[in-house]
Amino acid sequence: MSAQRLSALRETLSAIEGSGFRRRPALPFGLGAVDARLAAGGLRLDALHEVAGESADLSDDAAATLFLAGIAARAWGPVLWVVRRRDLFAPGLMQAGLSPERVIHAEAADDAEVLALMEEGLRHRGLGAVIGEAKRVAMPATRRLQLAAEGGRTIALMLKRHGRVDGDPLAVPSAAITRWRIGCAPSTPLPRGVAGVGRPRWRVALARQRGGETGEWIMEACDETGRCALPAAMADRTAGAHGNATPRAA
User: Fold this and answer.
1) Could you tell me the domains of the chain?
2) What are the residue ranges of helices labelled H in 164-231?
3) Tens of pLDDT, residues 61-119
């Protein structure tokens, strides 16, 4: 771990202390069918959550990245995003509701440095979200991140990237509270006669949840406020099954 990188991060974090944002124990999606499946009624803010693309395809990787950006956009304050490569596209993040002004970028040399910077950010307690991108993360490292997150209100999010040889990034045991798999689905159909492409859709799978069930949904991608939606037909089916309307937007 570079002492220079760590010192620079500490200086940046010190500058944002005392932000005073309202904090909540969990961050709901605002989708009844999804939040009802989550043990905390949303994503626990004092916990680690992992996300991976459904495949190694760049479109699935981008979908997983935007899924994380939408979660961070709905968190309460500044966001630390630790990357291994400079491929974050600020306009894309903004389309998912995450303003560049909220993002603190940190570039790490390897996965070990990603984890060290994430842990530093989580222990600071002055951030709304900490996001890290890594390929190989052992169980002890995820336990350290989970322990660093506990007792705070900074949600820990990890993008597990596909390796060149490795298979499923979520196959390795982890201490993460939830683990998600995101893939691209056919976009929302436009009305007949209207040219263009409809709102992107994702296949969202809650692959694992500590103390809770799994689940799969088709979601419309994050809008400019970071909120996803359930396609109208799916929302209508859920409403019919439960006797009341299910919100369509997170």
Assistant:
1) 24-242 (3.40.50.300)
2) none
3) 999 999 999 999 999 899 999 999 888 999 999 999 999 999 999 999 999 999 999 99
